[in-house]
C-alpha cells in the first residue's frame, strides 16, 4: 500500500495531513511512517517505521508495491543484491531508466518523485498489477494504491460514481481508467504517466498485441518450450516462500500448477484446498455440470504422495461472508460474490495450516490450456479453407459438421446485428439481460446511458460468439480483469496471505500468445498444447474430463436459510431511493420468493436470478456502506 501527496505551490505539505494519510495506507496493526521527501508526503504501508525510502542516483524517491518475480536475474545483471523489491526496482531504474519496466518481471505499481518536485511519475506493470488511484486539481495531486488514502486527507469528497456503479451492475468494466468515485481516476496496466499541475501525460509502454509471432521447427518443440517456461514461472512465484498452498480443483489449470510446484520441490509437501458442496446437497436433476472435484484431486494425490489435500465446504456461508471487510479494503463491490465464501475459506485454511502463499492457475485458460476459441473464424476470414475444413470435419460428429461450420466459423464473422437475428431465428429470442442476470431497472438502464456506454465500449451483454483469437484474448484480459488490482489486493489484506499465479508470469504468457493457434486446436482436439504438456504429470481422468465444472453449484442451499432476512432487506431497500431508483428490487423479490425448495429442482433461470440477486444486494450494501450503514 503506497501513497504520495503533493501540493503544487508548497514544498512542504505539512505534518497535519501525515497521520490520517499514513493510517489509510496501513498494513497490519501499526501505522506506518509518512516521509516528507522531495516536497511531497510519501508513505509505504508495508515498510517498517524507520525504513528510508529507496532513491535513484539523481535523488528521485521511489515507492513500490507488489512483487518482483525475477530477482536473481536482476541482481546478477545489476551486480547488486538489494534487500527489498523496492530497492531492487530503484536499482533497475537507475541502471536502465524507463526501460527497466520491460526487464523487471512481476506484478507491481510504483510512484517516483524527482528531487526538485513539481511532478509525479507513476507506473503499473502489465497483465495484473496493484491499482493506482489518482486525484488531481489546481492545488494538489494525490496518488495511492487505495482511494481511502485520498479521502483520508479530508480534502476530497467521497462521492460514488453513479455511472460506474450502473455499468458494474451490467457487468461492463471496460473503462479501466474509471474508478468508483467521482474525480478519482486510475492508471491502466502497462502504462506510465507524468503528472504536473496542468496535465497528466500517459504512455502505454506494454501492449500484448505487439508480441511477435513465434514459429518453432516441430510440434514437440512447442511442448518442450512450454514445459521449461512453466517450470521457470513456478520457480519465480515460489521465490521467497517456504510453505505454499494451492487452490486446487479438478481442472487442467490448478492441477498443472500443483504438479509443477511438486516437481520443482520434489522433497517438500504441498498443501492444497478444494471447494466442495455442502453435505447433503443434491445437484439439479438435469445438470450435466461437474461439481464435486474430490475424485480428481485424490487421483492427483495418488500420483504425488507429497500432496496434502484439504476440503472446504463453506458450511452455512453465502455471498455475505467477509463482505464488509472487502468493502473496507477494496472500496469497491466484488463482482462474482457467489464464489467468495470458498475463496475466503481457502485463505483462512492456508493461515491455519501455516502456509505463506496461495497458488492459483486463474489465467491458465488464456495461456497453456487455451482451447483455440476464435481460431476457426480466423481461418475463415483468411481463406485457409483446407485447414478450416479439417478442423470442422474432425471437431465432432460428422453429421454435425455443417452446424459447426455455421456456428463456429461463419456466424462469428458476420455483423453483430445479423448475428443476433440469425441466432434468434435458430434458437429463439435472446434473453433480456435486464430480466435475467442484471438487477438494473430497465428504465434506469436506458435513461442513465448504461446501454449506450456498453455499445460504445464494445461490451456485448448477449455474449455473442468470439470473432477471432485476438478478440478472445482482449476480452479475457479486459473487462473484469480491470478490477483485479483492487479485489486481489483486498483479499490479500483481509487474510494477510499473498497470492501468486504462474500462469500469468509474463514470459510464459508471452510465449503462449506468440505461438500458432494450431498448437491449441489441432485436428479437432481442443487444448492440444495442454494435453501434451500435462501427459504423465496429471491424472488421465483430468485430461479426459469432458464435463464443465460449476463453482458454488450449491448456492440455493446457502441462501435458503437466509431467505426471510433477504426478503426483509429487499423490502427495506425498496424504500431507499439511492437503491430503488437503480435496482429492480421488486423483480429480485419475486424471483427469491419463487426459489424452489429442493436443490434438484433448480433451473438455469433460477441461477440467473441468483446472479442478479447477489449482484444487486452487494451493490446496494456498498451504497449503504458508503452512507454509514452498520449492519453490513
TrEMBL record:
Domain Glutamine amidotransferase type-2: 59-151
Segments forming domain Asparagine synthetase: 227-595
EC number per UniProt: 6.3.5.4
UniProt enzyme class: ligase
Pathway(s) per entry: Amino-acid biosynthesis; L-asparagine biosynthesis; L-asparagine from L-aspartate (L-Gln route): step 1/1
Catalysis: reaction(s): L-aspartate + L-glutamine + ATP + H2O = L-asparagine + L-glutamate + AMP + diphosphate + H(+)
SUPFAM superfamilies according to UniProt: Adenine nucleotide alpha hydrolases-like, N-terminal nucleophile aminohydrolases (Ntn hydrolases)
InterPro entries assigned: Asn_synthase, ASN_synthetase/amidase, GATase_2_dom, Ntn_hydrolases_N, Rossmann-like_a/b/a_fold
PANTHER family recorded: ASPARAGINE SYNTHETASE, ASPARAGINE SYNTHETASE (GLUTAMINE-HYDROLYZING)
Name the UniProt record assigns to this protein: asparagine synthase (glutamine-hydrolyzing)
Organism: Roseinatronobacter domitianus
Lineage: Bacteria, Pseudomonadati, Pseudomonadota, Alphaproteobacteria, Rhodobacterales
Amino acid at each position: 500500500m503506497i501513497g504520495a501527496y503533493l501540493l503544487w505551490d508548497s514544498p512542504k505539505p505539512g505534518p497535519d495531513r501525515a497521520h490520517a494519510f499514513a493510517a489509510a495506507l496501513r498494513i497490519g496493526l501499526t501505522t506506518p511512517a509518512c516521509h516528507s521527501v522531495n516536497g511531497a508526503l510519501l508513505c509505504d504501508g508495508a515498510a517498517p517505521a524507520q525504513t528510508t525510502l529507496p532513491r535513484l542516483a539523481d535523488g528521485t524517491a521511489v515507492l513500490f508495491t507488489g512483487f518482483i518475480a525475477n530477482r536473481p536475474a536482476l541482481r546478477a545483471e545489476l551486480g547488486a543484491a538489494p534487500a527489498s523489491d523496492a530497492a531492487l526496482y530503484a536499482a533497475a531504474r537507475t541502471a536502465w531508466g524507463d526501460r527497466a519496466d520491460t526487464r523487471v518481471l512481476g506484478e507491481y505499481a510504483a510512484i517516483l518523485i524527482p528531487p526538485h518536485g513539481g511532478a509525479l511519475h507513476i507506473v503499473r506493470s502489465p497483465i495484473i498489477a496493484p491499482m493506482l488511484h489518482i486525484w488531481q486539481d489546481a492545488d494538489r495531486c494525490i496518488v495511492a494504491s487505495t482511494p481511502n488514502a485520498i479521502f483520508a486527507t479530508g480534502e476530497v469528497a467521497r462521492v460514488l460514481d453513479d455511472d460506474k456503479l450502473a455499468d458494474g451492475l451490467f457487468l461492463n468494466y471496460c473503462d479501466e481508467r474509471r474508478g468508483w468515485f467521482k474525480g478519482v481516476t486510475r492508471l491502466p496496466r502497462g502504462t506510465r504517466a507524468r503528472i504536473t499541475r496542468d496535465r497528466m501525460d500517459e504512455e502505454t509502454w506494454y501492449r500484448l498485441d505487439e508480441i511477435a509471432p513465434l514459429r518453432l521447427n516441430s510440434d514437440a518443440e512447442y511442448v518442450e518450450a512450454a514445459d521449461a517456461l512453466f517450470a521457470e514461472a513456478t520457480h519465480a512465484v515460489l521465490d521467497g516462500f517456504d510453505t505454499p498452498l494451492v487452490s486446487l480443483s479438478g481442472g487442467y489449470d490448478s492441477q498443472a500448477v500443483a504438479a509443477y510446484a511438486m516437481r520443482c520441490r520434489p522433497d517438500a509437501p504441498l498443501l492444497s484446498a478444494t471447494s466442495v458442496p455442502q453435505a447433503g446437497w443434491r445437484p439439479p436433476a438435469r445438470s450435466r455440470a461437474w461439481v464435486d472435484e474430490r475424485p480428481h484431486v485424490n487421483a492427483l494425490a495418488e500420483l504425488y504422495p507429497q500432496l496434502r489435500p484439504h476440503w472446504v465446504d463453506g458450511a452455512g456461508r453465502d455471498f455475505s461472508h467477509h463482505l464488509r471487510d472487502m468493502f473496507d479494503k477494496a472500496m469497491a463491490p466484488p463482482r462474482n460474490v457467489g464464489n467468495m465464501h470458498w475463496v475466503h475459506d481457502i485463505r483462512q485454511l492456508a493461515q491455519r495450516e501455516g502456509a505463506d502463499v496461495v497458488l492459483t492457475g486463474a489465467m491458465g485458460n488464456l495461456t497453456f490450456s487455451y482451447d483455440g476459441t476464435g481460431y476457426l473464424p480466423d481461418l475463415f476470414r483468411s481463406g485457409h479453407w483446407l485447414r478450416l475444413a479439417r478442423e470442422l470435419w474432425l471437431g465432432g460428429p460428422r453429421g454435425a459438421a455443417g452446424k459447426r461450420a455455421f456456428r463456429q466459423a461463419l456466424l462469428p464473422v458476420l455483423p453483430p446485428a445479423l448475428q443476433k437475428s440469425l441466432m434468434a431465428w435458430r434458437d429463439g429470442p435472446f434473453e433480456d439481460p435486464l430480466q435475467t442476470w442484471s438487477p438494473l431497472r430497465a428504465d434506469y438502464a436506458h435513461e442513465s446511458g448504461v446501454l449506450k456506454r456498453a455499445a460504445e465500449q464494445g461490451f456485448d451483454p448477449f455474449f455473442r460468439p468470439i470473432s477471432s483469437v485476438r478478440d478472445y484474448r482482449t476480452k479475457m484480459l479486459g473487462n473484469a480483469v480491470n478490477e483485479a488490482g483492487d479485489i486481489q489486493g483486498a483479499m490479500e489484506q483481509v487474510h494477510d496471505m499473498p497470492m501468486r499465479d504462474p500462469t500469468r508470469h509474463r514470459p510464459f504468457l508471452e510465449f503462449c500468445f506468440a505461438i500458432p493457434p494450431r498448437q491449441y486446436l489441432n485436428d479437432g482436439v481442443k487444448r492440444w498444447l495442454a494435453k501434451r504438456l500435462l501427459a504423465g504429470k496429471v491424472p488421465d481422468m483430468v485430461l479426459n474430463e469432458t464435463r464443465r465444472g460449476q463453482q458454488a453449484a450449491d448456492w440455493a442451499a446457502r441462501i435458503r436459510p437466509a431467505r426471510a432476512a433477504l426478503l426483509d432487506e429487499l423490502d427495506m431497500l425498496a424504500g431507499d431511493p439511492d437503491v430503488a431508483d437503480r435496482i429492480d428490487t421488486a423483480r429480485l423479490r419475486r424471483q427469491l420468493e419463487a426459489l424452489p425448495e429442493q436443490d434438484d429442482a433448480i433451473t438455469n433461470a433460477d441461477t440467473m436470478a441468483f446472479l442478479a440477486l447477489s449482484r444487486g444486494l452487494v451493490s446496494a450494501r456498498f451504497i449503504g456502506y458508503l452512507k454509514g450503514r452498520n449492519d453490513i
